[in-house]
């Protein structure tokens, strides 16, 4: 039993480790305590840190949440269970989530909604229940405990019945999305909140056509002058489908928007008739498919004096070229103040239509097909057209002439904001004319390569980002914000050109550096965004960036965006983390000091070598290497051609040649002497001659005198003889003192010779002639071969 218990303990330990490994593999928790466990095929709530603030469990296969699955995570503020297989949630599953603010249960398999789920969720602000197969909402109030709820999304194609009191208690609701495409029964007052909801989105699809009375009940509950009403995923093609909007009119709806809707000119005409006289001030069409030929005559008598804003985006007109002129909508156009037609394949506004836009203040025609040929009639300013226009956006069209655009907008006497971005101007003319009121100009992504004095000097904000500009030459006395991101500037523009500039954005250029001088040239610059450039991390720039830059400006972007491009060893490193050595920062002084140190060291080495006779040892090493090539011991007698090599000073040559040589060479037995003057081989290096002669001699006879110890060549001969004594361990040297000399005059490094002079009797040339016979006898004996 004890062994079995041990096995069970091991298995339990392995399972715990496996569970921990599974958590680390499936969930990633960041520094903000948000744990991402999405798309990991999880079948139950995984274990995450108890202090987690966010938990994303979307796109998994979790089928149920039990009472204890979430209890450890009392700090959770966000819980995302979107797109799982949830069919069961325990009534107390969220009991510990009193801090939860966002809960997403959309696209699951919840057949019923229970108010007990939400009893403890007092802090919940956003709830999404869309796409679950519950068929009934109510009659009991489900959301009454969600006193702080601000966003509610609910409903699905499965929803059939909605009872009253569904929104009781929701006193702070700002936004609601309701999906009821297959709704069969709706009790009036079911979607009526305690106070007006800021935005209501309804997806009722074919109910406008199939059950307009039910739709009228829904619209009656949600319509209010303070509510933006959005109709989504609907088909409005007949007069019948627009009848429910009478309820919206009666509710005083001022803002009405259609999204992902298919409609026709007939239905729009009917809608205008139904809403006639309403306080409608905003109408929006997004992702709308329009069918027909553009006949609006039946609505021409309607009154929309309060309609100030029309927003149209992604409008697809079937048979666009069959549509009649917009002149028939003049009764609407003449009241508009703001018009946006974005991505609507607009290539021209007929010149006859523009006079109807006399009240227009805002016009957005971005993402269309306007060209240099069609922009002129579109911006026709005759007959009072555009007399109040202050904002014009024609970005993302196919305009190519900046000069033409400047000429056309000159007549817009109240124009303040002009967006010409994402066109293909490429170049600027030398001179341009602009309205004196223009303050904001956007020329980003227009492929500009050079800059001229074309731009208006009245600007306060100028956007030239994402072009190919390298220099700035024009003065802007009123400019406060300049955006140069994504160009090819290698340095900051001259600050003198912008005396009032407060903000400069110059990211993603080719900046090498900036310093105190370049920043001081901007009199009023307060904010700079210059990350992601090719910074040269010199000592001066790194020091300025880390210590002083904050004294001059505030960096808007993160400091981690400021990285080194050169030198190569620092490429990619954040400037904030760079640490440069003294040698890198003070190259010239460091090199000077280093060179001085090297010279001093070399001098010390030279002095040391002189004191320690290093040169001599090197010479002896060379001689030793050469001598080692020949046998030093047991040399055959025939190789010793001489009995003695005579080493003497040139000043003692007379004594050697006239006394020593005749005496020894003519005696019986005679001695063969080697003299450098007589026996050295002509043309051969003298050192080689010395070494060869000593090697071929049985003895080396040194004629010592004061002149000998000062002779350079005698020193060579003495040096090699010293080497031979040391290497061959013999006493081949014979010393003859021609005149008395002090032993100290012999170099101290020749310790062997000094030892010989101290341990053996050497021969002295006697001044007394009677003693010379004895001298010669002793010399012959010393030279005699063993």
Automatic annotation (TrEMBL):
One of its GO terms (molecular function) is transmembrane signaling receptor activity. Its main location: membrane. Residues 1-20 form the signal peptide. It is found in: Membrane. Disulfide bonds join 29-35, 432-454. Residues 640-783 form the TIR domain. The chain crosses the membrane at residues 586-607. GO terms for cellular component: plasma membrane; receptor complex. Coiled coil: none annotated. Cooperates with LY96 to mediate the innate immune response to bacterial lipoproteins and other microbial cell wall components. Cooperates with TLR1 or TLR6 to mediate the innate immune response to bacterial lipoproteins or lipopeptides. Acts via MYD88 and TRAF6, leading to NF-kappa-B activation, cytokine secretion and the inflammatory response. PANTHER family: TOLL-LIKE RECEPTOR, TOLL-LIKE RECEPTOR 2. Belongs to the Toll-like receptor family. This is Toll-like receptor 2. It comes from Ctenopharyngodon idella.
